[in-house]
Amino acid sequence: MIPFDHSIVETALQMAREAGAAQARIALERSVENSATVLDGRLDKTLSASGSTLFIQLYLDGRYGSFSTNRLEESALREFIRHAAAAVRLITPDPCRRLPDPALCWKGPARDLRQYDPAIETLTPEARRDKALSACREILGSHRRLLSVETEWGDNIDYSYTADSQGFAGETLQSNHTINANVSIRGRGDERPEAWWYESGIRLDEANPKGCGRKALQRALDQLHPRKLRSGRYDIVIDNMVASKVVSPLIRALSGGSLQQRSSFLMDRLGTQVFGENFTLTDDPFVPGLPGSRLFDGDGLATARREIIARGVVNAYFIPHYYALKMGIPATVDAPSVLRFSRIGENSEKVLNLPALLEQTGQGILITDFNGGNCNPSTGDFSYGIRGFRFEKGRIVHPVREMNITGNMLELWNHLTAVGDDPRTSSRWAVPSLAFEGVNFSGI
Question: pLDDT value at position 255?
């Protein structure tokens, strides 16, 4: 268990005052990380690491500087902060660099977000090895095409305590457990298809090794004998494992840094109808048991449940304190916590997992991986390489490769047709599978 003694934070705040800082924010982060990796049935490597880092933000004479150190002895820390303050005095003043209004910061009461499972403390090196071994052995030698399999068990504990000179104080404690498998198989000629799978979660039982290796192997076998398709427009379903690829540009466009730099395709769109009425996106920071949930952001600002996009209308931005001052608008929070995509259509009783989405969509391309590409943050124009499968009548027909999708993010999200009920709760944003119509593909 990580010790919770955070008196060093209060000591560092006092040292910052003595060094001349008008304001300061100090964050102590402690972590414990363990892993065991198995290659082709044999333990290949183990890792065990722990550490403590102090992050120091100093505000003095209208100037700002950010520093970090793992030297927490009092004499060494005092000298470090003294030199840090001297360095800050060399920086050009910036009147927007100051701590937020305390009235905007989280003050409690504390809420249990259930982000720590004490079962992590029962894990031994032998248990970690055995979990990685079990995921490997369930497929080792099980198929004539199998070339190699690597499995890894990993777990970590992260604790943080943050306080500032205006009275804000908050702490977080989170555990995480992950089992993953990477498989390579013999394909046609020199082809060596590879695939992966992982299970992860805050709770120990959410990272179940059983079936992890088999899923990775099947994903590799499914890539055999791919075909190229003709260029054209296809309906698509994006697997929840990779759907965040098309969500990330949207979040970036809603973020204060992009807006302040005028490099956002959603610039000046607040309060306007940009997307279809079937698109509602909510930032929900208080969902228990999810890694993205939080009570406050990196500035200490209190989080709140908000509709970011409401029936196609851009309802809110993610505006950190600093960019709020730069733009002269109210601060919100620095980034999303847990994203909630509202269901589309009347039939809310039907479970929309991936097979159901394929059946509902009928025919098109299932995207299971992205292979390079980019999105222009100012215009929203994108081009991504993809891997996946052609499906017809809701059933997989064959894998596809060497294809690109191109278009514009505004157009793409205006063609959203379905939202799955299958978010990957191990990911911070918890993005589900998504379906879109009429996406432009470049093939043969």
Answer: 98
Q: Kindly list the distances between the CA atom of residue 317 and the CA atoms of 98, 301, 302, 312, 334, in Å, as whole numbers in the listed order.
A: 21, 15, 15, 14, 9
Integer Cα distance of 233 and 245 in angstroms: 20
Asked whether residue 119 is domain-assigned, the answer is yes
- What is the reported pLDDT for 188? 86
What length does the chain have? Answer: 444
Taking the alpha carbons at both ends of the chain, their separation in whole angstroms is 56
pTM score, two decimals? 0.93
The answer on 316 and 180 residing in a single domain is no
Q: How many domains does the chain have?
A: 2
Compute CA distances 35 → 1, 53, 123, 135, 173, whole Å: 16, 21, 11, 14, 19
- DSSP collapsed to 3 states, 267-309: CCCCCCECCCCCCCEEECCCCCCCCCCCCECCCCEECCCEEEE
If asked whether residues 309 and 426 sit together in one domain, one would say yes
Q: What one-letter code names the amino acid at 251?
A: I
């769109």: which residue's tokens? 269
Confidence (pLDDT) at 189: 86
Whether residues 240 and 335 share a domain: the answer is: yes
In the listed set 221, 256, 291, which residue is the last one of a domain according to the structure?
A: 221
CA pair distance 14, 23, nearest whole angstrom: 11
- Which residues, 6+ apart, have CB-to-CB distance to 130 below 8 Å? none
Give the CA distances from residue 93 to residues 60, 86, 87, 288, in Å, rounded to whole numbers and listed in that order.
9, 14, 13, 41
Segment-wise mean pLDDT, segments of 10 residues, the chain, 444 residues: 81 97 97 97 97 97 96 96 98 96 94 96 97 97 95 97 97 97 93 93 96 96 90 96 97 97 97 96 97 97 97 97 96 96 74 92 96 95 96 94 94 96 91 97 79
